[in-house]
Amino acid sequence: MVQNKGSFAIVTYDRTFGESGRGNGQYRLPRHLCALPDGHLCISDSVNQRLQVITQEGDFVRSIGEPGSGNGQLRGPCGIACENQQLFVVEGGNHRVQKLALGDGAPLGKAGSHGSKKTGELWCPHGVCINKGQAFVADYINGRVVVYDIGSMEHVRTFGARGSKEGELEYPCGIAVKGEEVFVAELGNHRISVFTKKGNFERILGGEGKEPGRFFQPRSVIIVKGWLLVTEPKRVTIMSPDVGEPQQTLELPGAGQLWGACKDEAQTRVFVTDIRAGHARIFVLNVVGNMFDDGAGGKAVNMNAAAAKAAEAAAKLKEWKEQKAAEAAKKEVSGDSTGDH
């Protein structure tokens, strides 16, 4: 039974910023990002082997890290989270999690090494989420979740195993924690698997499909106002965390390979990365709605205002599609006029 009486949530498309390249404010495979205490964003610029700190408007502030495998160096940075003025960076290339000082990027600790048999080993890890002193890491190739203590960077527990059965994971990418539950986005199984923080399997949300509430290669999952927001290659979905009831599925204009997502502190904006080669950029979405309600009845929202924003977003998307169709038709006509007759 759906348990979201009195609750409502949608996101609307606002704008994009950023471009592909090697310069400041340019990206190559910007897989994940997180919000910082000062309101800025930190992006894992994977192929450029660095982190970039930018404003929420997309202006470059500074970069952190350099290519390599030494302390403080980065190879294939992917998942990223911030806690207590410290950055926790998951490196797919170095198969580890590094703890860096937010201010200057100084190395403060690390965990993990390449492997699949020994305790705490990782193989191409992707997402990371910090909750109550613990880092939950999506261990991509090994198909599991590895948990570390963020103070000591020591291994705490591992749960899950590679596969497609209940409690198994196939290419886990994104990870989020809400209350006592862990939500894992599985690219390979096209679903969200839910566990307790101790690692006990609870349920599955979604499954492969195009209809609302189902997924194709979900990459990231975050909690926004108590709701789940899930990214797929070309769209985002908002759904209830209990039974996976879809509130909204929104196709983003021009999206190629959406990947990571994060919210601002006020939970009024969501930022989503697009890693498509040659078209790397960041989408900005506005959040409309209220906190997820477990059934007792939540604070009322202005449905008319929310509907108006949703209609505005749909109009923007329609306008963009019509523009692209016109451009394609113009190119086709131009091509015909220059051909042999």
Describe this structure in words.
The chain has one helix and 26 strands. It has 341 residues and is mainly β. The longest helix has 35 residues, at 303-337. The radius of gyration is 20 Å and the shape is globular. The chain starts with 8 loop residues before the first strand and ends with a helix.
The radius of gyration over CA amounts to 20 Å
Domain tally: 2
As for the CATH topology of the largest domain, it is Neuraminidase
* Top-tier CATH class of the largest domain: Mainly Beta
Q: What sort of overall outline do the alpha carbons produce when their principal axes are compared?
A: globular
Low-confidence stretches: 1-5, 295-307, 337-341
Q: CATH homologous superfamily of the largest domain? A: TolB, C-terminal domain
Strand order of the largest sheet: 1-26-25-24
> Count the strands?
26
The percentage of residues in β strands lies in 35-45%
CATH architecture of the largest domain: 6 Propeller
* Most strands sheet: 4 strands, antiparallel
From the helix content, strand content and strand pairing, which structural class follows? mainly beta
Distance between the termini: 65 Å
Helix content: 10-25%
How many helices?
1
- The run of helices and strands is EEEEEEEEEEEEEEEEEEEEEEEEEEH
Provide the residue-averaged pLDDT: 89
GO molecular function: ubiquitin protein ligase activity
Coiled coil: 303-330
Keywords: Coiled coil, Repeat
NHL repeats: 14-57, 61-103, 156-198
